[in-house]
Amino acid sequence: MIEDIEINDIRYLCQVVHEKYNYDFSNYAISSFKRRILRILELFKIESMSVLIEKVKSEPVFFRTFLNEITVNVTEMFRDPSLWRELRDKVLPNLFSTHETIKIWHAGCSSGEEVYSMCILLKENGWLNKTKIWATDIDDSILSKAKDAKYSMKNMVEVNDKNYIRYGGKGKLSDYYREENGLARMDTSLVEGVTYRIHDLVKSGVINKFDLILCRNVLIYFNQQLQNDVFRMFHESLFNYSYFVIGSKETLIWSDIANKFITVNQEEKIFKKVKE
User: Which of 95, 101, 161, 193 has a Cα at 20 to 30 A from 211?
Assistant: First the structure.
């Protein structure tokens, strides 16, 4: 088992990926990036970085697997239930008090659990038909999983159902899925107003203007320079007096555009844009 890898090998791997596939990982936080590479080496029983680099370079199918492992795809429905209560009770009522319709962006949506959580929240409060949602991710295979909308019944029962109860949903989470061959198949009518698309936070830029952007537990994997670039892109993507939500371990405070937001809820990491 490889216990450590050289920084130069990581840089060369990033160079190969950028030149061949046009994905830029050079500004990912080095410690977390290294951990994920070590996991890939162990998972696929690859004996050295040189072998991994050659596989990435010469096997596009393997690269899709590599990309899926490098990008973060651990998620759940109604993760951090107190945040969802805050969105339901304060943020969204505030938006709908001044807007007939709104636009939401789930940036780094992974396999779609957060998108379904939002659509369930909106449906239960009569807002679903007044909302357009964009759901984006860097990885097309994980976006396909989001569109497929089939999740492990084990996770549904042990994690998602419990989160929904803690959030205080109006019914049962099982109202929105049916069991099928050991999987929970979601009611896809919930996501008829959702646009799924590939988007690379590092280089794709602004895709629209939004009233609410959620990008949770993604930015912690970027170094400070890249976080700053992405924060600026999100700022540009928000209407004035619109909302921005990041992950519980992430912060906006030190960024270049921090003074253009006010903190709405520090614990839930909800911010409001107040300056262009």
Answer: 161
